[in-house]
Design brief:
The complex is a heterodimer of chains A (330) and B (205). Chain A has one domain. In chain A, 68% of the residues lie in helices and 2% in strands. Chain A is built from 13 helices and two strands. Helices cover 24% and strands 12% of the residues of chain B. The chains are: A mainly alpha (330), B alpha+beta (205). At the A-B interface, α1, α12 and α13 of A face α3 of B. One iron/sulfur cluster binds next to α4 of chain B.
Chain lengths: 330, 205
């Protein structure tokens, strides 16, 4: 009986997360177009619905009904399965992310986390990196030089940022002494002053930079940047397969925003009078906005510059940070 | 004045010669260069600028075209108009045929006849807008400011040739009587102070 309840609860939670995050990802595309438009003195979508809000529905219909073209010489099974990897890994990663504080619904305490595993952060980062297989396989299976270049750049990117993500997060983990995201959150219970961003500013900045690289956002959008590789790995994709990549990308953005908020900015602990659930929503909204903001303002870097940045600048800084943290802790 | 200073191409005063950035000589300089390149205030200036533009009210430059339209400048050359004389309501065109002659795409065709008073009248006047390249020569050559360019620029058509007759382009009489004929402001038009240049023809010998 007890096991059955857990299974049902988990399934309900999984479906809720899937639905809500997919909806948020779709809405984020609208927000992105609007914010970018305002920053570039344009209006953005205006015609479908009031201020273009129904553009989402229009885009959805378009993506679902578009012809799904599989290029003749592509390696078809891989070409077809590659787009699924992106959202699948992004959503799997969310299983270990606690979204909200516990709350009580009809006298039943709900933990808004699908699986509270004790290596949560490791799981999230690992699975999110598996998502890099999507552009890699997509680029290699579609017989297209732009796509191949995009795939090659994917590998470069993975090799560059992954080391920074891991090392930068090590220092805060040393202070907390646990890999569970709930423990990390609870460590910062004591209000704004106890946020890890104050104690580990360097790790915070490094993790943010690596997060931008992980989600392929400007300034590290080199695997699909139009001016160089047309559309990178997604050049040959059309219709919903193309759409899946972008659901994955936006889901990843949301995951990274949650991670940064939980690890460095006090997670879902209440701030003054703002309840915890609202606080974390505000935080991730800010980070999503930051992603768009940076996209509007900054140029993107070349692949060699990314490698240079990650290996020669960020990694030494991360190591230094670990060293300093170690000395202070001892 | 001598041309010495213009002929001397080496060492013009005020020029700064720039031979590229110096290569870092040792590790410390390389490190400083890395820091200088990576940590730049400019990045945040960029962020601030786009945020400022976003927060400004009514800052959009978009014209939502079919709903909103920009006003066209007076020198814009779109579909032609034939104007009327201000006093007599007659057509300004005197049938001189200059526009027909000068038109480089041969798209103006006109016929004239003499009326009972012996005055030249325009029987037929057509422009084929499928051929017209809106070069403006006809308006420029017209001695009477009779043919001018209007501002109606939405003239997509279903056929390659589209003939406008005299009746289509001539200011309609009721518009004219309601004082709505707009004087052409563009190229070749009379200037605002044209009246002050008028002199009496010296006829009293
Ligand atoms: S604008 Fe040029 S091409 Fe058109 S009718 Fe006049 S002279 Fe001919
Ligand atoms: S140049 Fe002017 S006056 Fe002469 S025929 Fe053409 S429109 Fe008439």
């Amino acid at each position: 009986m007890g096991e059955m309840a857990i299974v049902i609860e988990t399934v309900i939670k999984a479906i809720t997360v899937l639905a809500v995050v997919a909806g948020m990802a779709a809405f984020a595309t609208y927000i992105e177009r609007k914010v970018l438009a305002f920053m570039q003195r344009r209006l953005g979508p205006m015609h479908v619905g009031p201020h273009g809000i129904l553009q989402l529905a229009a885009d959805g219909i378009k993506l679902f009904t578009k012809e799904d073209i599989v290029p003749q010489n592509s390696i078809k099974p891989i070409f077809k399965i590659a787009p699924v990897i992106a959202p699948a890994s992004a959503f799997t990663a969310m299983a270990a992310v606690p979204f909200f504080p516990e709350f009580t619904l009809f006298g039943y305490t709900v933990h808004p986390i699908i699986a509270d595993i004790n290596v949560g952060i490791l799981f999230v980062m690992g699975v999110a990196s598996v998502g890099m297989y999507a552009p890699l396989l997509a680029g290699m299976s579609s017989v297209n030089k732009w796509a191949l270049l995009g795939a090659a750049r994917t590998v470069i990117q993975l090799l560059s940022f992954e080391v920074v993500t891991g090392l930068s997060i090590l220092a805060p983990l040393m202070m907390i002494g646990s890999l569970s995201l709930i423990d990390i959150n609870d460590y910062q219970m004591g209000g704004v002053g106890s946020w890890l961003a104050w104690k580990q500013p360097l790790a915070f900045v490094l993790f943010m930079i690596a997060g931008f690289a992980e989600t392929n956002r400007t300034p590290f959008d080199l695997i699909e940047v139009e001016s160089e590789v047309v559309s990178g790995y997604a050049t040959d994709y059309s219709g919903m397969r193309w759409g899946l990549f972008f659901v994955g990308e936006y889901a990843n953005m949301i995951t990274v925003s949650f991670l940064v908020s939980i690890i460095f900015l006090g997670g879902y602990n209440p701030i003054w009078f703002i309840p915890g659930g609202l606080a974390i929503l505000l935080k991730i909204s800010f980070f999503i906005f930051l992603f768009l903001w940076v996209r509007a303002a900054w140029p993107h870097v070349r692949p060699d510059q990314l490698m240079w940045l990650c290996w020669k600048v960020l990694m030494p800084l991360a190591l230094l940070n670990i060293l300093l943290t170690g000395i202070v802790l001892i | 004045m001598s041309l010495e200073q213009f002929k001397n191409r080496n060492g013009i005063p005020g020029y700064i010669y720039f031979e590229g950035e110096e290569k870092p000589k040792n590790g410390w300089e390389a490190f400083k260069r890395v820091v200088r390149i990576s940590v730049k205030g400019e990045l945040f200036v960029g962020l601030w600028i786009v945020l400022r533009e976003m927060l400004k009210k009514g800052n959009s430059h978009t014209v939502q075209y079919p709903a909103e339209k920009l006003t066209i400048g007076p020198r814009y050359r779109a579909i032609h108009r034939l104007l009327r004389l201000l006093e007599s309501e007659e057509e300004r065109c005197i049938g001189c045929g200059l526009c027909e002659k000068i038109c480089i795409s041969n798209c103006i065709r006109m016929d004239t006849h003499y009326d009972e008073n012996g005055r030249k009248q325009i029987t037929e006047y057509t422009i084929n807008f499928g051929r017209c390249i809106f070069c403006g020569y006809c308006a420029e050559v017209c001695p009477e400011l009779a043919i001018v360019h209007g501002i109606e620029y939405e003239n997509a058509g279903e056929q390659r040739s589209h003939y406008a007759l005299k009746e289509d382009m001539l200011t309609p009489l009721d518009t004219f009587r309601a004082n709505k004929q707009e004087e052409f402001q563009g190229f070749g038009a009379l200037s605002d102070n044209a009246d002050s240049f008028i002199k009496k023809t010296p006829l009293s010998y």
